[in-house]
Design brief:
Belongs to the peroxidase family. Classical plant (class III) peroxidase subfamily. One of its GO terms (molecular function) is peroxidase activity. Its cofactor is heme b; Ca(2+). This protein is mainly alpha-helical and about 350 residues long. The chain is built from 14 helices and two strands, in the order ααααααααβαβααααα. The chain has a two-stranded antiparallel sheet with strand order 1-2. α2 packs across α5, α3 packs across α5 and α8 crosses α12. Bound molecules: protoporphyrin IX containing FE and 2-acetamido-2-deoxy-beta-D-glucopyranose (9 copies).
């Protein structure tokens, strides 16, 4: 039965591809990356990722949002190098209380590790964790109803993670206004249109109260729809409540252009969302995406391909991690110490 569903899904997805895959983005490919990078070393790569995520998302569609956000955080901090996945990384799994405080979903890290294990079983240690993260984000968009797009591959994994300061300086807080967002994005060579299109990633997923109660207390943001504000006050009776709400109130788990319709109705959740419809530089872009989903999808794809190539390690730089949560150096250091101790007979107790 489950297998039957899966087969059905695959059929549906392949139909999607025929209809939507209208060729490649015109965004330039970074030196060292290519659209065919694993076509001989791991020909089934994309279907391994897709089939696993079909199973994951069939059980819990909301995991798509966690995977999309993971790729964004990876790329904005120190480049798309899987640094975000390392245990001990400021926004990674072992430092949930480090800033940015409301971090990534634990489940997203496990999903990436599970996919890497499946890939290694079929192809060996050839695919980087940074590429797995990029592919998981791409599949999450597709399987949530968004567009299919090819992505350049060949990223390599960083041997180190970013410091707290670097992480804080590169990730925009939800309180940013459009000027601050434009500045941060332009420091990464992303345009104002890229900013608006990529913010459309908030068409899926959730936010915690602490990410938006600045708009409720002590004074209510006059730029927020009154009904939404009243509902949010019930969800978040105090600024520190550990509750969550959907980012896109119209279609919370579907990747579509309704986020922009929300903004036009003053129903954006964060300051960083709603201000895109206030600022004259971005307002008309929001409007065109709200009325033309095809246009949004095209710009989102271009933005994702640019973002997905930020600061990539290629060629012989970095490494291909065996375990996405740990650098190979650490893993090897662990094993060599372990072997040494074994040889010396000091680790006899199991
Ligand atoms: C423009 C600047 C951005 C800001 C200020 C921002 C801020 C945030 C914040 C505060 C949250 C909620 C965290 C929480 O309370 O749990 C969030 C969630 C999310 N963000 Fe962004 N973000 C931005 C851009 C992006 C981009 C470029 C993407 C991807 C293309 C993205 C994808 C997501 C997704 C999918 C979620 C939901 C995550 C989940 O449900 O686990 N965001 N973002
Ligand atoms: C399915 O999703 C639920 C949450 O919705 C989670 O608790 C459970 O662990 C998931 N099961 C699998 C097999 O991933
Ligand atoms: C996040 O953590 C930092 C440092 O621990 C703290 O200063 C800040 O107030 C926290 N922010 C939120 C929203 O909890
Ligand atoms: C990190 O940033 C804080 C505040 O801006 C600064 O005081 C501190 O020296 C920085 N630390 C490092 C290691 O750069
Ligand atoms: C955006 O925020 C910055 C920093 O708080 C502030 O200086 C600036 O005036 C704001 N810009 C607008 C247009 O509100
Ligand atoms: C932005 O583009 C310039 C010029 O091509 C390049 O030198 C710089 O490294 C790029 N910045 C980022 C963050 O990719
Ligand atoms: C969380 O939000 C729901 C409504 O979305 C509300 O019924 C509940 O009381 C809230 N929980 C807390 C602890 O505030
Ligand atoms: C929220 O703040 C109140 C008052 O400052 C405090 O009593 C309560 O324990 C806090 N709750 C959480 C979940 O941090
Ligand atoms: C929507 O955008 C697409 C892609 O740019 C364009 O081809 C199409 O003409 C637009 N549709 C309308 C109704 O403007
Ligand atoms: C991967 O690395 C993490 C962090 O060092 C470790 O906790 C975990 O057990 C490792 N997983 C495997 C399968 O070795």
């Amino acid at each position: 039965m489950a297998l039957h569903n899966l087969a059905l899904c695959l059929v549906i997805v392949s139909c999607f591809l025929v209809v939507i895959c209208e060729g490649q983005s015109s965004v330039p490919v970074a030196p060292g990356l290519s659209y065919t990078f694993y076509s001989t070393s791991c020909p089934n790569l994309e279907s391994i990722v897709r089939i696993h995520l079909l199973q994951v998302l069939e059980n819990d569609t909301t995991q798509a949002a966690g995977l999309l956000r993971l790729h964004f955080h990876d790329c904005f901090v120190q480049g798309c190098d899987a640094s975000v996945l390392l245990d001990g990384s400021t926004s990674g799994p072992s430092e949930q209380n480090a800033p940015p405080n409301l971090t990534l979903r634990q489940a997203a890290f496990k999903i990436i590790n599970d996919i890497q294990t499946l890939i290694q079983g079929q192809c060996g240690q050839v695919v980087s964790c940074a590429d797995v993260t990029a592919l998981a984000a791409r599949e999450s968009v597709l399987l949530s109803g968004g567009p299919y797009y090819n992505i350049p591959l060949g990223r390599r994994d960083s041997p180190n993670f970013a410091t707290t300061n670097v992480t804080l300086a590169n990730l925009p807080p939800p309180t940013f206004n459009t000027s601050q967002l434009i500045n941060l994005f332009s420091s990464k060579n992303l345009t104002t249109t890229d900013l608006v299109a990529l913010s459309g990633g908030h068409t899926i997923g959730i936010g915690h109260c602490t990410s938006f109660t600045n708009r409720l207390y002590p004074t209510q943001d006059s730029n927020m729809d009154k009904t939404l504000a009243n509902n949010l006050k019930l969800t978040c009776p105090a600024s520190n409540t550990t509750n969550t709400t959907n980012l896109d109130l119209r279609t919370p788990n579907i990747f579509d252009n309704k986020y922009f319709v929300d903004l036009m109705n003053r129903q954006g959740l964060f300051t960083s969302d709603q201000d895109l419809y206030t600022d004259s530089r971005t307002k008309s872009i929001v409007q065109t995406f709200a009325v033309n989903q095809t246009l949004f999808f095209q710009n989102f794809i271009d933005g994702m391909i640019k973002m997905g190539q930020l600061g990539v390690l290629t060629g012989s730089q970095g490494q291909i991690r065996a375990n996405c949560s740990a650098t190979n150096a650490n893993t090897m250091a662990f094993w060599s110490v372990f072997r040494e101790q074994q040889q010396q007979g000091t680790s006899a107790q199991y």
